[in-house]
Design a protein that fits this description.
Chain lengths: ~500, ~475
């Protein structure tokens, strides 16, 4: 099959965007339908890619290669492996449901969907790029539309949040860019020709000092986006301020760009650097998990709860990355997917409630399940996924991460800490999560009926699309984990082989 | 006769300039708008000729060099002049006087830049510089009724004269130390006899003179005032073309005549680059006038370009050339949007841009994406340009300079976004109408925008052109 399917996935939103440019502004429904069709094309093709991806064979598939700037060895080359296939699918699901979650949008609709589609083009681009130049280019494409989306359509200190987010992400990516350029120059010298191809760059032997230095740059660059504590300050503000669809994309997908970058570029190119810094990541991520969960517990605004819970849940991903073995890395990727779907579901539901009730203050609600049973059911399922209930996607992911980190034998800080202790601490995060999730569910949706909210309508019509699609995904991959794990594992295996081949070196502590 | 063929571009430009001057005298006042069209068409035609001569090499009269390096810059100057001319149609008509002279001066300034880029000898270099500077003095002061414009003209005359004097002093010292004014022979003399104090002093003075032209800190003081006061299209032209011309001549002198003093002058350039990047970006933050903001941003851009000089390599020169070319479209794009807004609302205050996206999606989009290109955000061309510059500097081991440069360009995002914030997040004032943009300006803006996107997404053609010209410069 020579059809450039990955390029088509990325370009479908661009085509939609160009069509929307031509549609007059008052034709709001046509604009929304165009956006839905464009993202549906991406989704359908992503499903095709997911199904056709041969995980038995593994490696990069659906390749496409076009010479771009020969002088510097830049090629437009795309391809997906077991790590990126789930990410592409995740992006497609989140953006498709995100369009429906924005169906009630009435303010400057045309511009909104133009920027939204621009944003998602960048995200797709990152996940399919095999060329570091394009990887970075797409990475940055996603940032500026985000600024405008939050700044124009957001709520709660939107301009402050938008600027804070943009500056954090750009300064972070500046570090990544330095790392990328340094890598390119180092590799070009070793190889004797210029190339930005990630696979080729990975074959170069970088000396230890260089690996340590560049991995650190990458850790800052991509870590901001994850977000790793203490670089997370932009994230809850950004979540809360963003309009529904952008919150979904932002927490659901954009944070994964950071973790993906760490795995794809950081660990894959610099396994020894990764080994060196892993203990630091491991310790910081526990702060993410526990501190994020504790802060989430005391929030009064529904969106802030989910914002901090994302900080906490992304900590699990980092723990998976830091443990650097097959199980944990599998778990990290699975968690990226599961958290993306779950958090998109949360934001879609909160957006739905907020749109109708014009408040997100938990204390003002209570017994909402009487008025909005479907929303309540969706929220409950999301909540159960969040605290890692078996049968839902997140359980698989977290289980793998904890197995991986628990079995890793390496002392940190001269034996005071070990990965085993850290896993136990991380698991305690689940207990805190259970507390706040159940409390939020109880205080918001259950209890006696409040007549104040009798005018609220339950989700219906197109509003059900995000709820149904996202819940179905959580359950599908929760009940049939092998659908996902086999694919992911085919991408993780070569990575782990590289890590094991790398010199055993002590960590930073 | 072969010699004159090499000079085709310069001769055509001179003819065009004089022709426009004559036209301005002959054509009745009511029909003068046509002069602008003639100027634009002429510049476009000459640009095609210049591009077709991109491979030509030769030396005329011993010291006037035609090579791909110079021709590349000539194409750049012509592109900038063309955009300026198109941008000026309505603006000049509003000013209401001397249209013929305006376009003639524009073309003559372009000619001065060409001489500057081709000069292989110090006296013709100085001639080109003065031709450019003096015409710019007149153009900056062109709005007779505006005190700020007069101030801009006077400032540019006084400070320009001073910097010319300094430059001239430096050139004399270099001549004194080497005994020749031909750049190539100076290089040989320096290689043979080494660096004496006169030569070092001359180098410093020459550097200061050029730094003034390219608005490098601490020789940048004139630019915000002049930029603010000059007619907006001229400000655009000044910021892109005269800066590029300054860099062309600077590269010619420092790489051609003084490569053996590299160890010495590179230190000065590093200091200047750091100061320029930091000061330009930080001072831009509090600006409230779009032209002053762009002036400081343009100072900071000179800092990035200096990185290419510091790297002292083919890649660095190629990067400077690539960046200078796309900078024409990026900066002119921003100035064209500012002109369009000024033509309509008569204001340069950023606050007044509030809600511009609702009043004219095109002007707002051109402004936004031009600024993003200046900031180096993908997929705009500015990103590729900066990437090349940072690659050049990192390949020389100056990682800290690259980190500083990239961090500073992230700072620049902050103030560029302030403009975006006004345009997109603000709401238009009560009773404001849509912004009307003249068709010619509209076309020029769209063309610039498309070029910025194209060069960002597919940078290959310009990359090859710039890098090949840079290689030709290093290995003639």
């Amino acid at each position: 099959m020579n059809f450039p399917i990955l390029t088509a996935i990325m370009l479908a939103p661009v085509v939609g965007l160009l069509f929307i440019l031509l549609i007059p502004e008052r034709e709001e429904l046509t604009i929304k339908i165009t956006a839905a069709v464009a993202t549906f094309v991406s989704l359908a093709l992503s499903v095709v890619v997911y199904v056709l991806y041969d995980y038995g064979k593994g490696g990069l598939q659906f390749l496409q290669d076009v010479h771009w700037v020969p002088t510097f060895g830049i090629n437009y080359s795309v391809g997906v492996d077991g790590i990126s296939v789930p990410m592409v699918l995740l992006t497609a699901i989140v953006i498709f449901t995100g369009v429906f979650a924005s169906w009630d949008m009435t303010k400057r609709v045309k511009e909104f969907f133009i920027f939204l589609l621009m944003l998602v083009t960048g995200v797709f681009g990152v996940f399919i790029s095999r060329d570091l130049f394009f990887f970075y280019l797409f990475f940055e494409v996603a940032v500026i539309p985000m600024y405008l989306l939050i700044g124009i359509w957001g709520s709660t200190r939107k301009e402050y949040a938008a600027m804070k987010l943009t500056l954090y992400l750009l300064v972070g990516s500046a570090f990544a860019l330095i790392g990328i350029i340094a890598t390119f120059l180092y590799a070009s010298q070793q190889l004797g020709h210029a190339t930005f191809d990630i696979q080729t760059l990975a074959t170069v032997k970088y000396d230890l000092g260089f690996q340590k230095f560049v991995f650190f740059l990458m850790l800052i660059g991509f870590g901001v986006l994850v977000p790793i504590w203490p670089l997370h300050l932009w994230s809850p503000d950004g979540h809360v301020a963003a309009p529904t669809a952008v919150s979904m994309l932002h927490a659901g997908v954009l944070m994964k760009l950071g973790a993906y970058g760490l795995i794809r570029v950081g660990i894959f190119l610099f396994p020894e650097g990764a080994k060196y810094w892993a203990p630091l990541i491991a310790v910081l991520c526990i702060v993410n998990v526990v501190y994020g969960a504790m802060i989430a517990m005391v929030q009064k605004d529904l969106k802030f709860v989910i914002g901090y819970s994302s900080v906490s849940h992304m900590g699990y991903v980092l723990l998976g990355i830091a443990s650097l073995n097959t199980l944990s890395l599998n778990g990290a990727v699975a968690q990226m997917f599961a958290h993306g779907i779950m958090t998109a579901l949360f934001f879609a539901l909160v957006g739905n409630v907020y749109h109708k009730a014009h408040t997100r203050e938990i204390a003002r609600f209570g017994g909402l399940a009487h008025q909005m049973p479907r929303v309540a059911a969706g929220f409950l399922i999301g909540g159960l996924a969040s605290l890692g209930l078996p049968g839902l996607n997140n359980f698989v992911a977290e289980f793998l991460i904890f197995m991986g980190s628990f079995t890793r034998e390496q002392a940190i800080m001269g034996g005071i800490l070990s990965y085993r202790i850290l896993s136990v601490l991380a698991i305690s995060g689940i207990v805190i999560t259970a507390t706040y999730v159940l409390r939020v569910v109880k205080n918001t949706f259950f209890g006696p009926r409040k007549t104040e909210w009798d005018h609220l309508e339950d989700a219906h019509g197109v509003e059900m699309v995000p709820i149904v699609v996202l819940v179905a995904t959580l359950i599908l991959f929760g009940l049939l984990p092998s659908l996902q794990v086999d694919v992911i594992n085919s991408g993780i295996a070569p990575l782990v082989a590289k890590i094991e081949a790398a010199k055993a070196i002590g960590g930073i502590f | 006769m072969a010699n004159l063929q090499l000079l085709t571009v310069e001769i055509l430009t001179a003819v065009l300039g004089l022709g426009l001057l004559a036209l301005g005298l002959l054509v009745p006042k009511s029909d003068r708008r046509g002069i602008g069209y003639v100027a634009a068409a002429g510049l476009a035609a000459i640009m095609v000729v210049a591009f077709s001569m991109r491979e030509a090499t030769g030396v005329v009269w011993g010291g006037y060099i035609i090579d791909p390096f110079a021709t590349y810059f000539k194409v750049l100057f012509l592109a900038a002049a063309l955009l300026t001319a198109v941008c000026s149609f309505e603006y000049v008509e509003k000013m209401g006087l001397n249209q013929g002279e305006y376009y003639a001066l524009l073309v003559m300034a372009t000619l001065g830049m060409m001489v500057l880029a081709s000069a292989g000898e110090l006296i013709s270099l100085y001639l080109g510089l003065e031709l450019m500077t003096i015409t710019f003095c007149i153009l900056a002061a062109y709005r007779l009724d505006d005190a700020k414009s007069a101030e801009a003209g006077v400032k540019y005359v006084l400070l320009g004269a001073m910097s010319s004097a300094i430059l001239l002093y430096g050139l004399s010292l270099i001549y004194g130390a080497s005994g020749t004014t031909v750049i190539k022979e100076i290089g040989q003399a320096v290689a043979a006899s080494g660096a004496g104090p006169a030569l070092l002093l001359g180098t410093i003075f020459v550097l200061a003179g050029f730094a003034f032209k390219v608005t490098a800190v601490p020789f940048h003081m004139w630019s915000p005032d002049v930029y603010e006061g000059a007619p907006t299209p001229i400000t655009g032209f000044l910021s892109v073309a005269s800066k590029a011309a300054g860099f062309a001549a600077l590269i010619r002198v420092f790489f051609g005549a003084l490569p053996d003093l590299h160890e010495f002058w590179v230190q000065l350039f590093i200091a200047m680059a750091v100061l320029t990047m930091v000061l330009g970006n930080l001072v831009a933050i509090p600006q409230t006038n779009i032209k002053r903001l762009l002036a400081y941003s343009s100072i900071s851009q000179a800092g990035y370009l200096l990185l290419g000089i510091v790297s002292f390599s083919v890649l660095g020169i190629g990067a400077v050339m690539y960046y200078a070319m796309l900078y024409v479209f990026g900066n002119m794009g921003a100035f064209m949007a500012a002109t369009a807004f000024y033509n309509n609302d008569g204001s340069d205050t950023i606050k007044d841009y509030a809600g511009l996206a609702r009043r004219s999606p095109l002007v707002a989009a051109v402004m936004l994406f031009s600024l993003l290109s200046l900031a180096g955000i993908p997929p705009m061309a500015g990103f590729v340009g900066k990437l090349y510059l940072f690659m050049a500097i990192i390949s020389r081991g100056y990682i800290w300079l690259a980190i500083l440069g990239i961090l500073m360009s992230m700072v620049s995002v902050y103030y560029y976004l302030q403009v975006a914030k006004a345009m997109y997040l603000g709401s238009p004032p009560e009773g404001s109408s849509t912004v009307r943009v003249a068709p010619g300006l509209q076309v020029a803006m769209i063309v610039s925008l498309v070029i910025l996107f194209l060069l960002g997404i597919y940078p290959t053609p310009l990359t090859n052109y710039a890098m090949n010209s840079a290689v030709a410069f290093f290995m003639p």
